[in-house]
Amino acid sequence: MRLTVHPVLKELRAVYDVGGRHSRERFGAYLRLMLDGPERLPLGDFSPMGERQPAYLDALLQMDAERVAAEAAREIETGREIETEQGGVPADLRLVLVVTDQPGNGWTQRWLTDAAWRFGPHGAPPQGPATAAGWVTVQLWTHVPPTPGYLRSQLRAAVTRAVWRGRHGAPVTLAGHLRQEGAALRAGDGLFAAAPLTLDPEEQTYTRQVLEPLLGTRHWPTVFAALYGDGPAREVGFPPLGLSPLAGFALALAGTTGDG
Question: How open is the CA angle 172-82-200, to the nearest 5 degrees?
Fold first, then answer.
């Protein structure tokens, strides 16, 4: 498997030098970047109206983030932990760093955008982490400090997620979602947006008891609430299940059972 990093950060930063924040000129520059090249770039999560993205992109450029990403990609290529999962995965995967920002940009909801990146819109077949064209997007949120560690964990998780899908297909049931994210989170150092995922033994037992009867469900609001917990579920209008934030992801990291 060959991994290459497609450079786009300088072009993304340049979008903010065009017109005003809500101008047609800036939106046009964004569309041209995404659509006018030899093929469409997977930049749908990037908002040219974001408030914190210019400074964040400046920090990534100063860090030489695409070089850091290329080094992380080479480590994956030469490692053995993903080799055994390669069946069905394109021989070449192209990685692109996409900066996402919620406050004031008008089209990004923190949890739904994250879910679409991991699972596809509303649990549909994937158009986020890996597309048929072999793209892998590495989502970077502006509320998380732009460090090499954050970038590497997001990249490793995204590649593992794409490889898992290549072998197993897009997850359908809650069990499949848990298995996919368990593999991705373990590859990403057990971090969710740079924060460690932990459940104490009592809460882990409780979360497992809540989720075990639901492992076969294909109902997306239930799957979402099981993974993200009550707060995010209420925020997007889904019924809660009595779970703490990100409880399902933490259980997935710890390991769970069930068919995908």
Answer: 65
Largest CA distance in the chain: 54
Nearest-angstrom CA–CA distance, 245 and 228? 6
Sheet containing strand 135-141, edge to edge, reads 2-5, 92-100, 135-141
CB 258, CB 216: distance < 8 Å? yes
pLDDT tens, position by position, 166-176: 888 899 999 99
DSSP output for 126-185: PSSS--TT-EEEEEEETTS---HHHHHHHHHHHHHHHHHHHHH-S--SHHHHHHHHHHHH
DSSP-derived pairing of the beta strands 92-100 and 195-196: unpaired
Write the pLDDT tens digit of every residue in 234-251: 999 999 999 999 999 999
d(CA 33, CA 151): 23
Whether the CB-CB separation of 141 and 193 falls below 8 Å is answered with yes
Closest CA to 16 of 61, 62, 48: 48
User: 139-151 burial, b if ≥16 CB within 10 A, otherwise e?
Assistant: bbbbeeebeeebb
In degrees and rounded to multiples of 5, residue 136 shows phi and psi of -125, 115
Contact present, 251 and 204 (Cβ < 8 Å): yes
Please give the Cα distance from 197 to 249 (Å, whole number). 7
